[in-house]
Design a protein that fits this description.
Radius of gyration of chain B: 13 Å
Structural class of chain B: mainly beta
Largest sheet of chain A: 7 strands, mixed
Radius of gyration of chain A: 14 Å
Structural class of chain A: mainly beta
Distance between the termini of chain B: 36 Å
Largest interface: A-B, 24 and 25 residues
Oligomer: heterodimer
Strand content of chain B: over 45%
Number of helices of chain B: 0
Helix content of chain A: under 10%
Distance between the termini of chain A: 40 Å
Chain lengths: 125, 108
């Protein structure tokens, strides 16, 4: 079965650091772009970061650029999100998701077809 | 950034009803529009991609339409398991996916 499972969430003080992991099973992460998406009550669903299948293309939302780092570990079939200088407004449930490309003639359409169950990050003193 | 706006924010309906949720993009996104369903404590699940294409395994009572800046998700006959929150998502300006704020579908 194709699955993703996040881990590493928890309670951290403002200014602190945390590293989230996303472990894949049933497929190889090196064949897909993987996204981190977070969700909280105030902002809804927000794209955070993404890493391409080759690792050559990495992108971040403006709200986390310079503080978060996404990486992949192909040997462990996983993706990680290192989060530094955490703020209260980073509190959210973090999901990792697989980026799927659906061909349609000469076009391609993209969506997130496999998601983990999420891990919760709480930034509070 | 492309902004996605859904309406209504919440909706009460009964089993068997036909319901429609709308999503507007701040600029044209062609048909690069996806719809997700999310139940409490669960991850989002894709229902529709490319504005109108049904994802494998999704019941045919779900349908999507639209292009450019205006899109709709319709559930033809609500079932008890359909009460959830629905999100639209644009995939036009990758990697920066943006989502609508969600529509919570509740039992009347």
């Amino acid at each position: 079965e194709v699955q993703l499972e996040e881990s590493g969430g928890g309670l951290v003080r403002p200014g602190g650091s945390l590293t989230l992991s996303c472990a894949a099973s049933g497929f190889t992460v090196s064949g897909y772009t993987i996204y981190w998406v977070r969700q909280d009550v105030g902002r809804g669903l927000e794209w955070v970061a993404s890493i391409s299948s080759s690792g050559a293309y990495i992108d971040y939302a403006d709200s986390v650029r310079g503080r978060f780092t996404i990486s992949r570990d192909n040997a462990r079939n996983s993706v990680h999100l290192q989060m530094n200088s955490l703020r209260a407004d980073d509190s959210a449930t973090f999901f990792c998701a697989r980026h799927f490309r659906a061909p349609s003639g000469s076009l391609h359409y993209y969506f997130m077809d496999v998601w983990g169950i999420g891990t919760t990050v709480t930034v509070s003193s | 950034d492309i902004q996605m706006t859904q309406s209504p924010s919440s909706l009460s309906a009964s089993v068997g009803d036909r319901v429609t949720i709308t999503c507007r993009a701040s600029q044209s996104i062609s048909t690069y529009l996806n719809w997700y369903q999310q139940k409490p404590g669960k991850a989002p699940k894709v229902l529709i991609y490319a504005a109108s294409r049904l994802q494998s395994g999704v019941p045919s009572r779900f349908s999507g339409s639209g292009s450019g800046t205006y899109f709709t998700l319709t559930i033809s006959s609500l079932q008890p398991e359909d009460f959830a929150t629905y999100y639209c998502q644009q995939s036009y300006s990758l990697p920066m996916y943006t989502f609508g704020q969600g529509t919570k579908l509740e039992i009347k």
